[in-house]
Design a protein that fits this description.
CATH topology: Aminopeptidase
CATH class: Alpha Beta
Bound molecules: coenzyme A
Strand content: 25-35%
Order of helices and strands: HEHEEHHEHEHEE
Radius of gyration: 18 Å
Structural class: alpha+beta
């Protein structure tokens, strides 16, 4: 672990680091994020998920190691009676007055188009260097420029203070309090608030 002075995006720009979409024949470079289940997914399950169109995995790597990986899939954010959040208030604050009828439409439904971060991990050697945050931002931007409508990013975050702190710091909120004691907690980030013509 440790602070790197150079940003990941600079390393990608100068070719030291590349982002690769996993394929069936790809030789995955060494990786250890300190969480056995997440290591195991990368080496034993990610290609199967790819074969059956369940999730697509992306590798961030240098010439020797996998620095990080993430797997993405489509999702629906389900806001129902079990959700203790004041979700209506949240969307009311984002939708412009001139789009009031659209706000009513949004309030009528309980499922919203989303993309899910199925798995996300940074190798222990590179944790706490700001890389996770940079990768998360690039994932978010990729869904702002997505080919299909995507209002939210969702994640089932590991229920430990480090991981929850990471997602909260990056603007994710809890869907419900009812998973407080579960192994993972449902979180989401609202993309509508980030919509910016610059990205479209
Ligand atoms: C969670 C994880 C993806 C974060 O990636 P990272 O590159 O280490 O995170 P960053 O360096 O970008 O951290 C950004 C901020 O998140 C928070 N954060 C990250 N790791 C933290 C930790 N171990 N303890 C407390 N806060 C942490 C901090 O606020 C940090 O900012 P700061 O360093 O300026 O205080 C990475 O630590 C990891 O892979 N952990 C193990 C697997 C895991 O939990 N994956 C998520 C599964 S849903």
């Amino acid at each position: 672990m440790g602070r790197s002075t150079e940003k990941l995006t600079d390393k990608i720009r100068n070719g030291e680091v590349t982002v690769v979409k996993l394929t069936d024949s790809y030789a995955i470079k060494p990786f250890d994020c300190g969480v056995p289940d997440l290591n195991d997914f990368l080496f034993n399950d990610a290609k199967t998920h790819l074969r059956y169109l369940s999730s697509i995995t992306y590798l961030v790597e240098n010439k020797d190691k996998t620095i990080a990986y993430y797997s993405l899939l489509n999702d629906l954010l389900n806001i129902d009676s079990h959700t203790d959040k004041d979700f209506e208030k949240e969307i009311s604050e984002i939708i412009e007055d001139k789009d009031y009828s659209f706000l009513l439409e949004m309030k009528e439904v309980s499922m919203y188009p989303a993309a899910k971060i199925g798995r996300f991990a940074v190798d222990t050697e590179f944790q706490r260097c700001g890389y996770g945050m940079e990768i998360l931002n690039s994932i978010i931007i990729s869904f702002l420029t997505n080919k299909t409508g995507c209002q939210f990013i969702t994640v089932d975050a590991l229920n430990n203070s480090n991981t929850l702190n990471f997602y909260e710091k990056n603007g994710f909120a809890f869907v419900t309090l009812s998973d407080y004691n579960k192994a993972s907690r449902q979180m989401y980030k609202n993309l509508i608030a980030l919509k910016n013509l610059e990205y479209m």
